[in-house]
Amino acid sequence: MSDLINVAIHRSQFPESVLSDLRNSLCTRQINPKFHYDSYKQMEKWLELHQALSPSRNDPGCATCYDSAFAAAVERIGLHPAHLLGLGCGGGHKDTRLLSLLRQKSERVSYTPVDASTPMVLAAHQTASEVVTESHPLVCDLLTAGDLASIFRGHTSAKTTRLITFFGMIPNFQPELILPKLAGLLQPGGFLLMSANLAPGNDYVVGVQQILPLYDNVLTRKWLLMFLFDLGFEETDGSLEWTVEACPSGNDLLRITAWFHFDQSRSVRVAGENMEFGRGEKIRLFFSYRYTPERVHQQLTRHGLVVKEQWITDSGEEGVFLCERG
Description:
Layout: E1 8-9, H1 15-28, H2 40-53, H3 55-58, H4 60-77, E2 82-87, H5 93-105, E3 109-115, H6 118-128, E4 138-139, H7 148-153, E5 161-166, H8 175-185, E6 191-197, H9 204-210, H10 218-231, E7 238-246, E8 254-262, E9 266-270, E10 273-277, E11 282-290, H11 293-302, E12 305-312, E13 318-325
Helix pairs in contact: 2-10, 4-5
């Protein structure tokens, strides 16, 4: 592995854009999810949390679902050159397992790890470098970068099959905002491999309530609160509370949401501007949508995406979906 890595930084993650997004997050009291992955300290906390609690790391049945999905995707691509576009790449471990399978069959494999977090992109690139040498790391904001389709065309020739991965990401986006982005990036003949957090059982509402304790734990609390502490908030300023709420867009989805409630007033200075938070106010730090397989199909269909195959864990808490453009 070279001592130098060329990483492309999109304008959506230039300092002025990031500061604008941060101000907007604090002013609206709704934190953009990308700010929980911004620093190396946050990445370390998230990876610790992921290692300890993620089903893909701890549930053998979940790992089997991913392996089956990877094998199916590779089989569909066959011998064609493949470009793996890892959106929200995280640490890159799942992408690397998939890349390893692609390398065994495809005549040429390239990889673009994409994330709003520079530390995550670097981690994914380094992990994947064990199996693939052609890599084009990109730091960007998926929601605000409007020219990604043209950027990625430069990495994919007419004879190359594009395979997009979107693992562990859809819970943290409103579906009507992110799914059109995915549909726009998926070329004819290409594939989307995505995962979704599911509510177990036959009763959706009961299933969402059942998995609420999976979020309310020490590791998740430390990871989320690090964002506030790094800005100058104190642990004594308030408390983190978890709720289940309906999607504000009016569809039938529910999401688990973390709110920080202020027990006392606090003033913090961000980019030369004082921001005041009064006692009794609250900030939404995090949310995670829970789906059912049927709800995944419905949401994807609305945006021209069709599920060709799916793999659901025995626990019913996670699913992997292989999709094409309709």
